Amino acid sequence: MAAKMWYIDPVMQTMLSTMGGEAIKEIYGHFFAPRAIFTGRIGATALSMLVAFMRERRKAFILSDTVVERHARSVAKDFQEAGFQTTIWNESAPEPPVSLVEKCAAEMTKFEPDLIIAVGGGSTMDLAKAAWILYELPGYDLKAVSPLLPMGLRKKALLAAYPTTSGTGSEVTWASVLTDDSVTPPVKIEVSSAEIVPDFAVLLPEFTVGMPPMLTAGTGLDALAHSVDGYLTCYDTDICDALAIKSIELIFKFLPRAYKNPNDMEARYRMQLAATIAGLAFGNSQAALTHSLGHSVGKVFGIHHGIAVSIFIPYAIQYYSRASKKYVQLAQKIGIEAKDEEECLQKLVDRFKEFLLSFKVPYALKEHGITKERWQKNLADVAKHAWEDACTGASPRPTSIIDIKKMLDYAYEGKDIDF
Ligand SMILES: [Fe+2]
Questions:
Q1: What's the CATH code, domain 213-413?
Q2: What's the CA-to-centroid distance between 226 and ligand 1, angstroms?
Q3: Residue ranges of the domains in the chain?
Q4: Would the CA dihedral through 339, 351, 302, 372 be positive or negative?
Q5: pLDDT tens digits, residue range 70-79?
Q6: How many angstroms separate the alpha carbon of residue 168 from the centre of ligand 1?
């Protein structure tokens, strides 16, 4: 695990930026998604029956953690009734280290499943994707996984994902975010391949009811950042645009309800849909600066992923606006009226700032308990990590480490981007 990830390479970054250009869209495009997405109790039963017809050995390995293990048990029951032998592995952990992925894959190898099921948040689903690779291809270097290299998964098992939060969209995306703990200090790595898109996603709103309000807000705002970036990124497509806009509409309408009343089942259901729809959008058109800057700030200062990335929505929109007028379409789609582009941008940015504040999420980083001294001490490192992040190459405005550092400083103070 010594080599750098494939995307930390100036040639690759340039190639990725070029691939996102307008000229290439007519000759290359893609949209990866699960074979099927089921919703609700009857949908979950239908999936277990469908998969029973598709599998011969009918052995399901279910990944979970101790917090949501009760949901894993209910999924196991569905599959047992469909004729599966099941086992639950409940050792999933946040930001899964590669050593844990290897441990999980070793357990899979002992059980020999022909179906892998993830029941949990983004970390559990990401862990399942990576462990699945090592189960199918023992000894494979996860750092060598690339969207450009076929692996030939699915010779041993299929993957189904049951999210218990509404935000990451990992149930439908081709990315797995892990922690490389073979180096000191451990670093975040992103493993991406179209082959790790789960075969099936199952949305059961009752699985998200236990989320406390701040987790509801954080995960929902993560989905919002996915949709905003998914709409504005240089990899945008008409398919992703339609999905991103629907997701933003759902989040504006239903996240405040789910936040205020955790038992509002309609709001929980719509937020699950919103997160999955956002996942389909940004999973194909990529997240950009909200995520590269948010990843870095979140990691260094210990801020929840969804909160950290959503803070950058207003700044990213302002920064992109100098290179692309697509923000005007976004504003129109969410009902903003303005006399000119300047007013349109201001109203759009204000709409997102107000939305963040309604969940007690200040958009100035200094209001997140980061002292000026600590900020200045870490700024160079935060900027470097953000610059090297896989999402940076998807910015619709070509950027630089100088601009990134400047954006970070503006976000610390809560200042509008004016460059
Ligand atoms: Fe995210």
A1: 1.20.1090.10
A2: 6
A3: 36-208, 213-413
A4: positive
A5: 999 999 999 9
A6: 5
